[in-house]
Specification:
The protein has about 475 residues and is mainly α. Among the domains are: about 10-90, Arc Repressor Mutant, subunit A, CATH 1.10.10; about 100-210 and about 230-285 and about 305-340, no CATH class. The protein is about 40% helix and about 5% strand. It contains 18 helices and 4 strands. The protein has helices at about 10-20, 50-60, 70-75, 80-90, 100-115, 120-125, 130-150, 165, 175-185, 210-225, 230, 240-245, 255, 330-340, 365-375, 435-440, 440-450, 455-465; strands at about 200-205, 280-285, 400-405, 415. The structure holds a DNA duplex (21 and 21 nucleotides).
Length: about 475
DNA sequence: AAGGGGTGCAACCGCTGCGGG
DNA sequence: TCCCGCAGCGGTTGCACCCCT
């Protein structure tokens, strides 16, 4: 769909009356364009072809820049910001209009996986496309995928990771660094992202693929259960190797299905526009997570969160993936899921008082944490902490793992995973879990237990009851 | 045919960085 | 060093159009 907001000359009169002469004209003066040109109210709203012509003529004569002087030199009653935006997004030469090509779409996805909401940077690598265009495309895509309950990044998208240990040093980071990571944190409802200083596509390299892939089954179940938002981004769930192996028929499950030559390395993008000549192997060093039982992990907060998504074969409606990937076997789909890691940024401060780092902005996490603290006075929770480095075994055999989403922000929800049941057939059902009180609904509980996810209902209900005023 | 919701694009708004005075 | 204005960026909103009922 393509619209043009340029109005014809007849519309000029209409918009003139709307924006310049109507009693509410003054209300249309935004804070960004508060100046008044030539004593008249600056116009807002859609541009007319006449205005476009004036602006084009101005740029031809004066060049780009000095946008605030446009209204001084022309009859254009537009603020500089508006002029710049109009020129950049619609009038400048070599703009490519129309739908994004498949290559462009894939490049956007991959770039977003790498840099987050850096629309301007993305636009630099998409000739003829504007940041606004890319941003709109992405936002639309997010909505669409979230509605469909699909993961943000399709299987096969190779999300790069920043080598945090090298790129980010909390103790020495400056304001800009922090802001960059704040930007990462603000990547929408469910976007975890990575930063790259150069434009190379990188691999996500795990020190232990077994461990990395082991995150998937448990998290997939949970993320599926948690709903759309949570399905895109989950805090990592870090069961032990042995636990996870129970979830699969063989520990070589992923290796066998791995398309990569190097089992330690997830595939890199072979993007048509970039090729694969640039590779940067990076590692997910850690992950950051919280625990609904309020226990503080004994190890340091984990850094790279992991995008956890259901294997694509679970999506019966996942035909939308066709545009991204060729049909694959369930096994390879499982592997594909490994590719689509999202990472959360590291905590901005090392000395976080507890597991809730500044990166953990999930409201529910905080509420749950508070509730847990309250509840801990009454109960001792059976759940245990998880090994953070993937090498320590977590107590099992009836133990449950309380898991919350962390870096996902809005994807705050939780579940308790009974790992022994993970080898059951997955029945992707999405619980409509939005609020803690909803979580108390028995149907939710039933739904979980149907596909091998149960929660510590007594303790959790107590916690939630406390939280909700109980 | 009408209307209501969905979709996508254009534009606005607020904020930040940077450079000059 | 501080202040101010400009440019740019990313988030948000407004609205026209489409589609379904």
């Amino acid at each position: 769909m393509s619209y043009t907001m340029v109005t014809d000359e007849s519309d000029d009169a209409m918009y003139s009356s709307i924006y310049n002469e109507s009693p509410s004209a003054a209300d249309n003066i935004g804070s960004g364009c508060t100046s008044r040109g030539k004593g008249s109210v600056l116009k807002k709203g859609p541009w007319t072809s006449t205005e476009d012509g004036i602006l084009i003529d101005y740029v031809k004569r004066h060049g780009e820049g000095n946008w605030n002087t446009v209204q001084k030199h022309t009859s254009l009653a537009r603020c500089g910001k508006s002029c710049r935006l109009r020129w950049a997004n619609h009038l400048r030469p070599n703009l490519k209009k129309g739908a994004f090509s498949k290559e462009e779409e894939q490049l956007i996805v991959e770039m977003h996986a790498r840099m987050g909401n850096k629309w301007a940077q993305m636009a630099e690598h998409l000739p003829g496309r504007t940041d606004n265009e890319i941003k709109n495309y992405w936002n639309t895509r997010i909505k669409r995928r979230q509605r469909a309950g699909l993961p943000l990044y399709p299987p096969g998208t190779h999300v790069e990771d920043l080598h945090w240990s090298q790129e980010y040093h909390p103790s020495t980071s400056n304001v800009t660094d922090r802001r960059r990571h704040q930007d990462i944190l603000q990547l929408g409802n469910s976007k975890a992202n990575v930063l790259f200083d150069d434009l190379t596509f990188a691999n996500v390299l795990f020190e232990d693929l077994n461990f990395a892939t082991s995150l998937l089954p448990v998290a997939s179940d949970i993320s599926d259960m948690l709903g759309t938002g949570a399905s895109s981004y989950m805090s990592p769930i870090l069961p032990s190797h042995s636990n996870i192996r129970q979830a699969f028929q063989s520990p070589e499950h992923f290796q066998n299905a791995a398309p990569q030559k190097n089992p330690r390395s997830c595939s890199i993008s072979d993007h048509p526009l970039y090729g694969n000549q640039h590779r940067t192997d990076v590692m997910i060093q850690d992950s950051h997570h919280t625990f609904t039982d309020g226990m503080v992990p004994t190890s340091k907060p984990l850094f790279g969160a992991v995008k956890l998504e259901l294997p694509s074969f679970q999506y019966s409606e996942a035909s939308g993936f066709d545009q991204w990937t060729t049909p694959s076997t369930p096994q390879s789909d499982l592997l594909d899921s490994v590719d689509t890691y999202i990472q959360s940024p590291p905590p901005l401060e090392i000395d976080e008082p507890d597991c809730f780092s500044s990166c953990d902005t999930g409201l529910l996490d905080m509420l749950l944490h508070e509730a847990k603290i309250k509840a801990s006075a009454k109960h001792s929770f059976s759940s245990t902490t998880c090994a953070t480095d993937g090498t320590q075994d977590v107590p099992r055999g009836g133990d449950t793992h309380n898991v919350t989403s962390g870096a996902g922000g809005n994807s705050s929800a939780f579940a308790v995973v009974k790992t022994e049941e993970l080898d059951q057939v997955w029945e992707p059902k999405r619980a409509d879990v939005i609020r803690p009180d909803v979580l108390l609904e028995s149907s939710w509980q039933d739904q979980q237990s149907r596909f091998g996810i149960v929660r510590d209902s007594s303790s959790l209900n107590d916690a939630l009851a406390l939280l909700l005023g109980g």
